[in-house]
Amino acid sequence: MTQSVDPSVYLSDLQKNQKGIIRQCSATGMLKQKLLSMGFIPGAEIIVLRNAPLRDPIEIGIHDCLVSIRRSEAALLKVEMSC
Amino acid sequence: MLKVALAGQPNCGKSTIFNMLSGVNQHVANYPGVTVDKKSATLKFQGEHIEIVDLPGTYSFSTYSLEEMVAKTFLLDEGTDVIVNVVDASSLRRNLYLTFQLLELGKPMVMLLNMMDIAERRELEIDIDKLSKMLNIPIIETVGTKRGGKKKEILEAISQAGKVTIAEPFKIDYMEFENFIAKIEEMISYESTISKRWLAIKALEADKVILEKVNISKDTIKDITSNIHAKYDLDVDQTFARVRYDSADVVYHKCVKEKNQDLDTLTAKVDRIILNKWLAFPVLGLIIYLIYQLSIVWGYELTNYTWPLLATLKNWAITVLPPPELNNVPMITDFGIWMINSAIALLNYVPIFFILFALIAILEDVGYMPRMAFILDRVFRKFGLHGQSTLPLVLGGAFVGGCAVPGIMATKGIADDRARLATILTVPYMNCLAKVPFYTLLLGAFFKEDMGLMMFFISTVTLFIALIVARLTTSTVLQNRETAPFIMELPTYHLPTFSGVILRATQRVWLYIKKVMTIVLAVAVVLFVLLQFPGVSAEKNIEFSQQMDKALVQFDKKVQKSKYYEHIDEASEVSALINLYDSYKSQRMLAGSKAAVASLDAAFLAKSPELFPLVRPQDKDAKKVGKAARKLSKANKKLQIAIKNEKITNSFLGMFGRALEPLTQYAGFDWRINVAFLSSFAARESAVATLGSIYEKGKSHLSPEESLAQDGAYTPVHAASMLLFMILTPPCIATMVVVKLQSNSYRWMLFAIFFPTSLGVILSLSFFSMALQFNWSGIELMRNFYLSAATLTLILSLFKTKQSGWQVGKSQ
């Protein structure tokens, strides 16, 4: 597996069908708790499945589950792209 | 009694399991102080009473969401004996995250591995024995949608688990944290049935509820966490979550074999169509159209069949109440009929509500609701609403007519508190079904040619108004309300169960009847008093009885020579004849078939063998009397309407209406219109009824539309102003009750009454004045109002809303 380590890639930057691994989360408070309990923890694998018809929010796959998240929230998750 | 708490993550099929265990024997209430549903059921198994409480579905036990708080507080305070953890077998890994936290509580537990069918379809092979051994709890496989099945086995396991005492609770090794957890454990002196270690872990997570319970200050924990941060460079919350997920991963890999790595599930295939860039909106439109067609249109047709039942109820009440003596109607009879009318006006909507609630339940079970929010979130977010606001607005009547009651009840699922309240406050602006007769009355009277265009204005302008109001409230009075992140699971599609859907629809209809009816009836009493007293003046009364006497004399003259005269030569007999005539006529209307008419005739004949032949005359003499009776009945009705009018004019409500006239005249409303609007608070239908009765004036050959148009007091501009007010008019009592229920506050209820009323008065005042100033026609008034609303909506949509809390930029 080839990995391109780009320090400034966020979940919101990923295109459809791109995969990644969560590296860091800069959310706080309720959003952080919510993200953690849904499994958005460093090391978790994610895949962007699609954009909503109006481009926002986005649907992603994590831990065999489908989760929708707004772009503004996805912008707080730093990811490492994997192809 | 064995107390059992049913816990699990959202969408794990928990409520299906709960329904299976409890049957119809459930009790729905709220958790103390919040609007979260608390479902419980008590049942008997092998001589033992078991109480099962269905906790709200939660992913975890953090501090922030209302559901998690409620679930946690319940487990802490209610002395639960056994926890039943429902787990979605098809996403076992994530479900284990909650399971671990439940196990750490140190209570006996039973795991129900639900949705095994989906797991099998995905070719997941789960080694249940191994899982049961690793977690040290009994596990039962279930398929939530299959009926009955395992009820006995589950209850058996629960009752067995109730006998177990846990010596050593389940433990996850939190590595670096263990020292700190032990330290906090020593600080805790709080005695409970809950494991101290669990309390210590939650305290370390800085959980507000727990810290208060165990009496440790926030600062103490802050010191510890910053100590950890300095020493190990670890974030406490993230580390806890990571360790739990890692442990879940270990368990998962030891117990589950994924035979098929292909993720192309049925759900993925369906989503490719339903969430497709181009197809999403047409599909959504189709679904909304179907809901509208099935519930509002067909449901309305269904009421044609249920209406006779309600009418029978009314007729029965009339026979029980003391009969009127011509124009002298006893107060108790008047009151009884008024109350029955108020009740059946609301009961009439039950078929529509039932269909609506059933359809909502289906959409919820299938898993379409979060997808609807996913599709539309971007539009609604601009106005401070939420993707999940779509359905409440549609039910409220985003097309031509809905009902705010189910609309507001459907706001329950909206996670974002601010958007939820904003939706509750905007749904009443949608066009309610009961407003439609009022619109058609005015449109028929004043805008016959342009009915279509006016109806288009009315039905679409409401959506603009709702969006504007949502935007205004969320950026002012609701500004400081908590908003929630839009992180939402899109669950796997499921087939709903018939019994589950029917059960939920029945529960909601019952809630409506119970809560709404009682209050509406109470208000009906008040309204009755306001409309009846102080009543007709003495001189007027004399005038009315003189008129009645005159009619009686005329009747007497006509029938004197008939051979039936001996039966009708006294006033009480005449009165009985008129009552018989009226009651036969109203019941005859309901009798459809020839056989029904025959049996009705027979029943009447048996009851009053002397008078009935005059009502349904066979010979010439009887026909003559019958004709006179018909005339007298008509005269009597006319007089009663005149009395009723006089009563309303003199009533407290009439006085109030007149007192408002100095203000409302600038909106084009005279006191009669004011009375109609005031009485519409009880139920919207009464606006038309009151207006109708005020204008009826006995001109029975004219339809209400015609008599309104010919009255001469109003022009189309007046009518347009009335329509404008009606569009904005405050919610009816039933809606207010539901606003109170769902917002859990009388203040919001009052706001929901006064804000739209003021808005309605101000807007109809200004538009009516402008219309007079610039010589607008009625249609121009409406068009200009429409264009202003549309423009304002567009302008507001261009401004960005503040998403308080998480628009903190990218750090580092």
Looking at the overall shape, the CATH architecture of the domain at 2-161 in chain B is 3-Layer(aba) Sandwich
Strand order of the largest sheet of chain B: 2-3-4-1-5-6-8
The CATH homology group name of the domain at 2-161 in chain B: P-loop containing nucleotide triphosphate hydrolases
Q: Tell me which protein chains meet in the greatest interface and how many residues each side has.
A: A-B, 43 and 51 residues
Q: How many helical stretches of chain A?
A: 2
Question: Between the first and last Cα atoms of chain A, what is the distance in angstroms?
Answer: 7 Å
Give the oligomeric state of the chains in this entry, treating copies of one chain as homo and distinct chains as hetero.
heterodimer
Overall pLDDT level of chain B:
84
Instruction: Please report the number of helical segments of chain B.
Output: 35
Number of extended strands of chain B: 10
Largest sheet of chain B: 7 strands, mixed
CATH superfamily of chain A: Ferrous iron transport protein A (FeoA)
CATH topology title of the domain at 2-161 in chain B = Rossmann fold
Question: Mean pLDDT score of chain A, rounded?
Answer: 86
- The best one-word shape of chain B is elongated
Under the CATH scheme, which architecture of chain A would be assigned? Roll
Helix content of chain B: 55-70%
